[in-house]
Amino acid sequence: MKKLAQNQNSNSLTQAYASIATHVLQGKVVSHITYQYFEKKDEYDWKQAAPIVVFTDGSQLIPIADEAMSTAGAFYLSENEIENIIPPI
Hints:
By secondary structure, this protein is an alpha+beta fold. It contains two helices and five strands; from the N terminus they run αβαββββ. It has helices at 2-25, 38-44, and strands spanning 30-35, 51-55, 60-61, 75-79, 82-86. It has a three-stranded antiparallel sheet, with no helix packed on it. The chain has a two-stranded antiparallel ribbon with strand order 4-5.
């Protein structure tokens, strides 16, 4: 019974986060992809610079490895049976 409750809580949390992400990203238009400026990388004390999705409204989507922003992350794109990874550098 405990495992069922954990699954329901996890599922609820997943749905809540998915809803927030959808609300935040829906309708945005990608302007371009760039890499984090190296001085920003140094400011965060990251060993790598993250790839950044820049939207036409100026907002940015920056991949991070964890919620503490301890290091850059990578994007993984799966589309039409083709898999691509946009890694930090």
